[in-house]
Every structure is written in structure tokens, then in C-alpha cells.
Amino acid sequence: MRPLIAILLSLVCPPALATALSVSLGTGTFLAVPHNYTGNGAGFRMGSFDIHNPHSAGLVLFDVTLTAIGSGDDSTALSEIGLFLDFNGNGTFEPSVDSRYGQTFTAYPVDNGSLTFTESAVFAPGETKRFLIVGKMNGVVLPKYQHGFRTIVSSISATGGAPTGVPTNFNEGIAVINHPTPLRLEYDVTGSGPPYTYSFRLVLDNHDGSWAAGQEWSSIVFGQAAFEAGGTTPFAGWVGNAASLPVGPFTIFSWATMSVGGVSYNGPGLVDNFSPIEDWIPAGVGDSLTWSGTCDVFLDEGQMAWSTFRMAGPSVQGSAVIEPAHRVGDYIRVVAAPAAVARPGPLETGSGNGFLLGAFDVIAHSNAATFSGLTLAALGSCDDSSAFSEVRLYVDTNGNGAFDPGVDTPFGAAYTAFPADNGSLTFNDTLNFAINETKRLLVVCKLNGAVPASYGQTFQARVTAINATGQNHSGLPTAAVAGLRIHAPAITVTTTGANRSAFANGQGPGGLGLGVAEFLLHNTGVNGANFGSITLAAGGSLFDHLAFSQVALYEDSNNSFQFDVGDTLYGTAAAGFSGDDGNLTFTQAGTLAQGQWRRYFLVVKLNGTATVGDDFWVRVASLGLTGGTEAPSLGTLEQALTIIPGSDPTGPDPGGTGGGSGGNKDSGGCIAGAANLLPLPILLALTRRRRAKAVSGKP
After folding, report:
1. Which residues have C-beta within 8 Å of that of residue 286, sequence separation ≥ 6?
2. Residue 369 pLDDT exceeds 50
3. Sheet strands side by side (includes 326-327)
4. How confident is the model at residue 300 (pLDDT cuts 50, 70, 90)?
5. What is the domain-level CATH number for residue 76?
6. In terms of C-beta density within 10 A (0-12 exposed, 13-18 middle, 19 or more buried), how is residue 383 classed?
7. Is the pLDDT of residue 643 over 90?
8. Does 145 have pLDDT greater than 80?
9. What is each CA distance from 59 to 10, 48, 66, 116, in whole angstroms?
10. Which of 423, 469, 643, 667 has fewest C-beta within 10 Å?
11. Rounded Cα gap, residues 624 and 534, in angstroms
12. Is the alpha carbon torsion for 136, 140, 142, 148 positive or negative?
């Protein structure tokens, strides 16, 4: 491909121009990240560079080679390294917008090694493309504190002359913060509007087991960005001075510069209550510092991160890992309760009482509270305005996590459905909460609405708003509950029965017909199944649309495991199959309870036109299930019938020359010369078809 592109470009790019692409580093900030940082699983920007075509002719880039430098081991610290084209040119890595350039690598081949990313990219005259270096940190060996990772563009391959600007200087890089901290930062926010009052507690809880007596802590840095939230960068939007509270009673005189991952930040010193210039040396587990302050920004759980600096002690000095601050105090919090996806049928009503679709925990903290309402928003592919006949909330009175009709207490009104697909419902009632009490609310539904749901559709819900005492409500909107997935019957179909010998005019014992195949239907799903038809498909050398005078399907209603007079007729078709090797559909309503079996017999009467040696094969091709199907296992094509010489005295007698052995079992065969009684055009057509089948080897 490269020579072809080069030849084509040479037609518009005279070699004498010696055109070339130029490479330059993008601008960016040094980034400090945890040692296992993955950018929320999508990767994060480790650097960038621009490639520019300054000439009046088009050029083609073939590949880019990156070389790693720095103190970190590039062969073990990374779990992914790749290049992306900055689609909108904003310099920010956006996984859903930017496009990958070349392949993905898990790591560099060796420390300070090189990787080549190969892909053809056309540069128009004057065009510039920005490339983002994107990585993930959680490799096979996590890097150590203050290990650095930088990248240079060591070479590129392209049409035109030798590229300029390579090798580049090192790109803006990253430094690692990975020291543990045994400290936990808790905070409480009060107030109905700005400025909000914050209370802080820094406690030695030794949650990571890293504490040893004598450790000394100094300075703390606060972050007012969501901790590891999508689209944010660690240490972005952090407190920079004493005016940007909430940071407590510290004044500008106690602020100092501290290093977090090699980057300097201003932070207040950690002090005891008696000496504002003294670093904090916790005496033991449970020891804590408390302070308070105000801020115009309301920070909820997960919206504040922090780090601190270990000055001295038995362990190595350095910044601790970035951690989230934990919200406590007087407020109501709502969280989705964990659960498995419910799998009801499309008409499930929970025996008329409703079934549990999901649940939410409402949690009070350090003060009693009154809860007076909740707004529930629908999600999922199911049409929430038509699939349900009732939607309700209940309080889980006995706390067992299940819906117990007659035990659990209704909360608010009952609705027949949501007002619109993905709409919202508000339930108003009163619940009183004691200090630190949790109550579970159950979302209970009935299906069988105006338009029943269909197989595979989903329904979820989340809480978007609540009414309660106090202003500090968190967790909203909640994550969606697991919800439901509409589950249709799962039917297994088995074809059984040995190959049967029959005369060309076989009518079966007593002229009732020949039972030539059995079909077993088994409902292996979690709900009852309704079906309205069974379609059979034929095969073999027998002309299925000509050889039968009647084809019928019976259910083994007396469970005798054989066709007899006690079986119930499911359907008949005097005309036979739709064509040779065609289909035949029997239409009648039927049901299968969960776990139930049903056996059906295919019963035929032959009309004497078959030829000795012909065979007939059959299988179940489809079931007319309502509500969809869980990919039923349909029957395989099984040989059911072979025509033998002789004649059935109870059957039709073409030409009036009948005979045969009679009896309850076909043991004779076709009348000698019976085929010659057919009109010549039909006889020739049958002969040609049978020869074609013999050549093809088709059963």
C-alpha cells in the first residue's frame, strides 16, 4: 500500500519540492496520578504532539515511533499505551470522540523502550493533526512514589522529504503518588444555601495497616473536583489559598508549600489545638484532629479528594495516595440496593399482588429526620407508559429485602403506569427516621398493561429527587436498580421414533393412519408458555405434497407413548405439505406450564403414488410462541418412513389391482406397475425429480 500511495502522490508532489512533515510537542501540564490510575478505565492523557504539513502538496503519514524515558519502568508499570487523533482539537482525551491511531500495546517491550504505531493518515496542504498519548497505569508491577514517565517522538515515516522536529524533547509527563495513608478525612456540611458550614475530622483509623508509632504529618491539600469522576483530572480545581475554604481554622500564616507527586501546592499545616505551628503526630488509632470552616460550594460524597504529607517517622517520607473525603452528618442519603435482574414473563403480576422490580435504601445520619416523598424515574427499553398495570412503592416492614404482600406497608399512591415512556412518578407519604437508621423502599410492579412487554425488553428505575427535613440530601440521582428483563418461554423440541416401513397406500391399523414420528416439547423456562401453531418441515425422496391423502398431528393425551384412539387430534391437513420438501403448519392454541412436557404424533395416510424405496424425513421447523422465545432448540431432521413393496388392503387401490398381506402393520408394498397408471407428463416429472435428488445426495 505504501508504494502505491507514494506513486499517486508523486503525480501531484514533484520530488524537487522535498516536502516534509514537521513534528512539535503539544502544550500540557505535568500530571500527578495514583500508581494504579486508569482514567476511569478508559485511559488518561500522558502527553501530546502535533504533526503539521507546512507545504502546498498533500503528504501521507505511515507510522509514529514513541520512545519512553523517565525513572518509572515502562515495561511493567503500564497496562495499556496507545495513540489517539484529537478529533475536535481541544487537547483533551475524550474516549467517545477521539479515534485511535494504529494498534494498542499493553506496555513497552523494555524500560525506556520504543513502540511503533502504524496507520496511513493523509495530510492536506497546511493541515495539522494533534495526537494524544494515552495510557493506563495498572500494569503487572505498580510503580513507586514519584516515579516519572515521559515520552518523546523519536521518528515518523511519511512521504516527502525527511521529517523535521524529531526526535522531540520529552513530552509533558506524569509522576506517581502511591504511598499509603492510615488517615481518614470525614466532613459534614450544613446550611440551606451558601455559605455552607463545614466540619472536618481527620482521624487515624489505620485502614490500610501502614501506621507505625512516631509518624509525623504536615500539610494537607484539598480537591474540589469529583474524585476519579469522568472528565476530571487528579488535583484539578484544588484549593490554592486560605480564601478558598473549606479548610478550617488555619490562617494564611500557617499555609506552606507541599509537594504532591513532584508538583507544588499550597496547603494548611496539620496542627494540634494548642500549637498552630506544630506538625501532627497521632498518638494511636482513634486519635483525630477537628476543625471547621465555610465555603460557597456544596460538596457531596465523592466530590472532595485530599492528600497529605508524611514528614517523618518509621516509613519513607512523601505524599500519600489521593483519597476521597467521606461525608457524614445530618442529611438523608439514597442508594440503589444491590440485586439480581428480575426475569418475569410479559404478563407477570406476582399472583395478582405485584412483584419486586428493585429497591432503594434511604439512610439517615447523625440526627433524626422526616422523609416525605420520592420521585422515581423510569429507564430501559420497555415502554413504561403501556407495559404496566400498576406501579407502587412499599416500605420493607420486616427488613428481609423481599416483597411480602400483606406485611410490607404501601408508601404513597398506586399508579397504573408511568405518564410517558421513561417518565417519572412522585410518591408522597411520611417516614420518620431515628439517628443512623436505614429503611428500604421496594418498587413493586404488575405487568399485563395495555400493550404487553415483549421478550428481551428491559425496565429499570432510579430515584431523582426526595423530600425530607434538612437541605443536604445526597446520592441523587441514584444508580439504576438492576430492574427486569422480560423473559419468554424457553422450549426444547426433540424428534424421536424409528424409521417405519410402509406400503405406498398405507392407511395404518383400522385405517386410522400411520404414526411416523414423535415430537417432544419441553418448557425449560421460568414461566408458562403459550403457542398457537406447530410447523413441520419435510425432506427425503418422497414427494411430500403428492404422496399423502391426509397428514394429521395428535397429542399423546393419554400418555400411552404410542399413537392410539385415545389421543387428541391437534390438526389435520388433507392437502399435505406445501411442496416437495415443504412446510406444513398446524394451527391451534396450546400451553406449556413451567417444566411441562407434551408429546405429539405425526400421523399420515398414503395415497398410493409413492415409489418403492422412497423415504420421508421430518422435523419441527418452528413454534408459534407468543411473547418471543428464548431461542428454542428445534427438532432435527429424522427419517420417519420408507416405502416397501406390497399393498395395504385397507388403503386406496389405484387401478383396481390391489392385494397385499393386510394386517395391522404395513409389510407389503406398492402394487406392481402402479406408477404406470399415472398420466405420462406427471410420470416424467416425478422421474426427473427423483433422479435430481439421487444426484444431489439430498435425504
Report:
1. 203, 204, 205
2. yes
3. 288-295, 196-204, 183-190, 326-327
4. low
5. 2.60.40
6. buried
7. yes
8. no
9. 10, 21, 21, 19
10. 423
11. 6
12. negative
Reported as a single tens digit per residue, the pLDDT across 423-468 is 999 999 999 999 889 999 999 999 999 998 877 789 999 999 899 8
Which whole number is the average pLDDT over 474-484? 84
481 and 368 in a common domain: yes
| Single-letter amino acid, residue 412 | G
41: number of Cβ within 10 Å: 9
Cα gap 494→168, rounded to integer Å: 69
Residue with cell 400411520: 514
Range of 630's domain? 491-688
Which cell numbers in the block locate residue 350? 406476582
Cell of 372: 416525605
693 in a domain, yes or no?
Answer: no
> C-alpha cell of 601?
404424533
Residue 587 and residue 558 in one domain: yes
How many whole angstroms separate alpha carbon 343 and alpha carbon 528? 13
Residue 497 lies in a domain: yes
The number of folded domains in the chain is: 4
Q: Is 487 helix (H, G, I), strand (E, B) or coil?
A: coil
The two counts, helices (H) then strands (E), for the chain are: 2, 39
pTM of the full structure: 0.39
Give the three-state DSSP class for 527: coil
Asked if 307 and 322 count as a contact pair (C-beta separation under 8 A), the reply is yes
Tell me the DSSP string of 267-321. Answer: EEPP--SS-TTSPB---STT-EEEEEEEESS---TTS-EEEEEEEESSSPPEEBP
Residue where one domain finishes, among candidates 156, 177, 198: 177
Residue 652's closest CA among 504, 551, 509, 553? 504
d(CA 566, CA 516): 17
Is 216 found in the same domain as 113?
no
Question: CA angle, corner 417, sides to 415 and 420, nearest 5?
Answer: 125
Claim to verify: residue 232 and residue 96 sit in the same structural domain: no
What is d(CA 634, CA 109) in angstroms, rounded to the nearest whole number? Answer: 51
**How far apart are the C-alpha atoms of 477 and 457, rounded to whole Å?**
23
- Do 496 and 595 lie in a common domain? yes
* Cβ atoms of residues 643 and 650 within 8 Å: no
Taking only the tens place, the pLDDT of each residue in 189-235 is: 766 566 777 778 888 998 878 888 888 887 777 765 443 333 344 43
Collapsed DSSP state (helix, strand, coil) of residue 571 = strand
Which grid cell is 142?
A: 505498580
Residue 473 shares a structural domain with residue 502 = no
What is the rounded CA–CA span in Å between residue 47 and residue 30? Answer: 9
Residues in the chain: 699
In a domain, 698, yes or no: no
Residues 9, 155 share a domain:
yes
Which of 548, 546, 575 has the alpha carbon at shortest distance from 689? 546
> In angstroms, rounded to a whole number, what is the distance separating the alpha carbons of residues 472 and 254?
31
* Mean model confidence pLDDT for the chain: 78
Q: Count CB-CB contacts under 10 A for residue 65.
A: 17
Cell 512539535 appears where?
24
212 and 297 in a single domain? The answer is yes
Measured between alpha carbons, how far is 268 from 105 in angstroms, rounded to an integer? 42
